[in-house]
Amino acid sequence: MRDPSGPPGPFRRSFWRSPIRGPWLTSVFGLLLLVSIPVMFATGLLSYAAYNPDLSPLNDMTPDKGPLGFYLFSWPTHPIWLYRLTQGVHVTLGLTVVPILLFKLWSVLPKLFEWPPLRSYAHALERFSLFLLVGGAGFEFATGILNIQTWYPFPASFYTLHFYGAWVFIAGFVVHVTVKFPVMVRALRSRSFIGEMRTNLARTRPEPPAAGYLAPVAPAAPTISRRGVLAFAGAGSTLIALLSVGQSLGGMFRRTALLAPHNQSVTGVTAGTVGDFQINNTARNAGITAAETGEAWRLSVGTDDQAGHAPAVLSRADLLRMEQHTASLPIACVEGWSTDNQAWTGVRLRDLAALSGAASPSSVLVRSLQHGGGFNRAVLSGAQIMDPDSLLALRVNGADLSLDHGYPARVIVPNNPGVHNTKWVASLTFRS
Ligand SMILES: Nc1nc2c(c(=O)[nH]1)N[C@H]1C(S)=C(S)[C@@H](COP(=O)(O)O)O[C@H]1N2
Ligand SMILES: [Mo]
């Protein structure tokens, strides 16, 4: 086999000696990614839409998205479990795929040192697409995982970065799949999968160098079989899935989610008793004091209509005297964790809209009395306001909200990303 006389070391094919590296193994990992990445992309786009980014200006953290927002639609309130499902899939799959991605990158490592680095315009273009692909994948996985771990060392909003990063990644992905799909099919057909699953270490042979660039020209003796590598990657993926999916499944599986940081704080409504459930951000962390939420707390309910009357000012007792409605709803966070359905009780948002004088509101700006932090305001759509299960909740599971769950009042809207279910609400401003 030709071994181009590039610089010595990794730039020569003979440097890469793993006897199992080759087009077949790369294609098996490639096929797994080919199936899972589009699912992650689609659920990611849904998550982006779920934030209703067109509800300007507040919700719009990507004002320059241009045509990338082509598919946006008003995020529905039903089915109530939809965001819980799509985001659970997005995050769980994203974590599960990590070992596969790492093995895939290992399997194509010689390509990084291909010599000569650029052979033609077409080759240059292909390598540029790989730069978008590998860089985009690294960026998307890194930002996604850091976000789940609630560590935000980002220069800008996670949401903005992860969204634009996804488009860069998928552009590289589409070019790569277009170029490599026939190569993958050919490689997968070159060996029998069942046959490989029956091949132990002693009988493991390298793919012939003629099979493609990835096959070794000077193979070393094998130290693991192909089925061993696939089993190892599969076991890694399965373990990660098992240790994280519980945060989305809930119920008795919740305790298995050892890799999920949000599963660990349960300091809520009736702490320590049945009926309590985890919280994301504590009152203490948000800088909410008992004084602000005590007897002096008032809710301001108004419209942005300048000619309209002054906003109504309601105490918690006033709100409790209004018609109370109970809805069984989950909280589902962009980070993949979600609560099981809880029985939230409070005043319907549409009743508060009517009170403000906005009969058919197009949106509402919800403000928290929390000062800092990015999650202290949100805009909800007209459809979200009008859903009969959209509440300004005062109680949950038959008890007053605890301070950590958002006392004196919090928003809860069916199928709404958790971040828009504002806690410690101070004002509602309806727009018509
Ligand atoms: N005021 C305020 N509201 C907030 C938050 C916050 O930090 N401050 N966190 C949001 C996020 S990101 C989520 S997922 C939900 C979680 O609700 P929980 O903290 O009751 O679990 O509340 C949302 N409402
Ligand atoms: Mo969240």
Task: Give your account of this protein's structure.
Residues 294-431 form the Oxidoreductase molybdopterin-binding domain. GO terms for molecular function: oxidoreductase activity. InterPro entries: Mopterin_OxRdtase_euk (IPR008335), OxRdtase_Mopterin-bd_dom (IPR000572), OxRdtase_Mopterin-bd_sf (IPR036374). Keywords: Membrane, Transmembrane, Transmembrane helix. The structure is a single chain. The protein folds into two domains: 9-249, no CATH class; 283-431, Sulfite Oxidase, Chain A, domain 2 (Alpha-Beta Complex), CATH 3.90.420.10. It is built from 14 helices and ten strands. It is elongated and about 80 Å long. By secondary structure, it is of the alpha+beta class. The strands form two sheets. It has a five-stranded mixed beta sheet with strand order 2-1-10-5-6. Strands 3, 4, 7, 8 and 9 form a five-stranded antiparallel beta sheet that branches. β1 and β2 (312-314) form a beta hairpin. α2 (82-96) runs antiparallel to α8 and α5 packs across α6. It has helices at 23-50, 82-96, 98-107, 109-112, 121-148, 158-190, 193-197, 226-244, 246-249, 283-286, 290-293, 316-321, 349-356, 382-386, and strands at 299-303, 312-314, 325-329, 342-348, 363-368, 377-381, 391-396, 399-400, 410-412, 425-431. Bound molecules: ligand MTE and molybdenum atom. Molybdenum atom (MO) is lined by residues 280, 333-335, 418-419.
